[in-house]
């Protein structure tokens, strides 16, 4: 697959200062190769080298365990800023970031000492975590077979963003036992011989995320390696935590994409004498962007309540639906405002227009989100709405 692993060498990458400042310093360096990575369907490996140099890989690890101790709002700001440089880098990195933020939250708020080894390793080694949550989600995917001392795993994990440089994939597989399906959760060593990254990522947008399929063929997971066993196809307290924390981070990226499209469109529009129609388009665009920002802030406020539950899922997913609608609309209006100049690939807007479409596809998608919100309003069960 197309991966360039040679680290870029910007003039100054400093680990001092807030993580938002570090992200700002990286933006021009990330932007330099964004169009090329998109055109070649090439994973942004060189940008991951920059993220490591800047100390952003361990940003969400508590300071007591060697990280920067950033909370969800700070991490979201980091990802939003990174998206101004390269959408694909920011989105792929959001998958690592939320996989760090969840155990950090559990260590901090649930006092789970079991989270410490992973968090310390992220800080010390700057390993990259992969997520298969979007492809697995609540039903799970793949097959787990009981063998002596553990389980044999066979699976194909799709949309595995960052797969070419991942160290550990946080994933699961379905075990059929006692007449019911259960999902086992575990970490997969991406260097294991039974694990292979397949060169499959050819997509409309976010082409540099390296979201290839990962094939797992006969991987042994010992009993001690299983972190959780839960019923398949329904909400679980752990997923209340994961979704409440993860989606404000992921959707910070899409907000950043919308902001960057707006800024590019304004730059292009200012080259012309503004007509009444141009003013109208610019006003509608900024109004949509403000709506997306307000909705995203609602997502962050929900996460900051530190009370994951069915209610927090409803609030986060309602915010997610609004960010999706208004971020996409912002980019549509930006493309229209830019006029013919924006239609050229060199302007960068058509790439952002394609990248923003990814906001449609993360769970909960439009149908399940509306049903979940409706069930909450009417007092109906939501445990199997996903």
UniProtKB/TrEMBL annotation:
GO terms for molecular function: acyl-CoA dehydrogenase activity; flavin adenine dinucleotide binding. Its cofactor is FAD. Residues 29-105 form the Acyl-CoA dehydrogenase/oxidase N-terminal domain. InterPro entries: Acyl-CoA_Oxase/DH_mid-dom, Acyl-CoA_Oxase/DH_mid-dom_sf, AcylCo_DH-like_C, AcylCo_DH/oxidase_C, AcylCoA_DH/ox_N, AcylCoA_DH/ox_N_sf, AcylCoA_DH/oxidase_NM_dom_sf. Gene3D superfamilies: Acyl-CoA dehydrogenase/oxidase, N-terminal domain, Butyryl-CoA Dehydrogenase, subunit A, domain 2, Butyryl-CoA Dehydrogenase, subunit A, domain 3. Residues 250-360 form the Acyl-CoA dehydrogenase/oxidase C-terminal domain. Belongs to the acyl-CoA dehydrogenase family. This is Acyl-CoA dehydrogenase. It comes from Falsiroseomonas bella.
């Amino acid at each position: 697959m197309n991966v360039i692993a040679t680290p870029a060498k910007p003039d100054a990458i400093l680990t001092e200062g807030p993580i938002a400042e570090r992200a700002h310093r990286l933006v021009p360096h990330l932007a330099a190769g964004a169009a090329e990575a998109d055109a070649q369907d090439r994973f942004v490996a060189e940008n991951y080298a920059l993220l490591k140099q800047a100390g952003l890989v361990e940003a969400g690890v508590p300071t007591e365990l060697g990280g920067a101790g950033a909370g969800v709002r700070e991490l979201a700001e980091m990802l939003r800023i990174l998206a101004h440089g390269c959408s694909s880098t920011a989105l792929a990195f959001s998958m690592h970031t939320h996989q760090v933020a969840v155990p950090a939250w559990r260590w901090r708020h649930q006092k789970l000492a079991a989270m410490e080894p992973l968090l310390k390793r992220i800080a010390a080694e700057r390993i990259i975590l992969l997520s298969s949550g979007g492809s697995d989600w609540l039903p799970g995917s793949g097959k787990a077979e009981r063998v002596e001392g553990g389980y044999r795993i066979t699976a194909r994990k799709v949309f595995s963003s960052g797969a070419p440089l991942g160290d550990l994939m946080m994933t699961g597989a379905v075990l059929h036992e006692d007449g019911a399906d259960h999902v086992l959760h575990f970490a997969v060593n991406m260097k294991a011989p039974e694990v292979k990254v397949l060169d499959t990522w050819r997509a409309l947008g976010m082409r540099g995320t390296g979201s290839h399929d990962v094939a797992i063929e006969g991987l042994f997971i010992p009993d001690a390696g299983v972190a959780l066993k839960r019923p398949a196809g329904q909400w679980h307290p752990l997923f209340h935590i994961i979704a409440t924390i993860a989606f404000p981070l992921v959707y910070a990226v899409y907000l950043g994409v919308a902001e960057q499209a707006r800024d590019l469109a304004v730059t292009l529009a200012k080259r012309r004498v503004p007509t009444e129609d141009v003013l109208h388009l610019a006003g509608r665009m900024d109004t949509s962007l403000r709506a997306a920002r307000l909705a995203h802030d609602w997502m962050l406020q929900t996460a900051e309540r530190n009370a994951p539950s069915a209610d927090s899922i409803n609030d986060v997913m309602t915010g997610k639906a609004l960010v999706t609608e208004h971020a996409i609309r912002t980019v549509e209006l930006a493309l229209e405002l830019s006029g013919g100049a924006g239609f050229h690939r060199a302007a960068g807007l058509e790439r952002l227009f394609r990248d923003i479409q990814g906001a449609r596809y993360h769970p909960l998608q439009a149908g399940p989100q509306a049903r979940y919100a409706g069930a909450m309003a009417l007092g109906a069960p939501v445990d199997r709405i996903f």
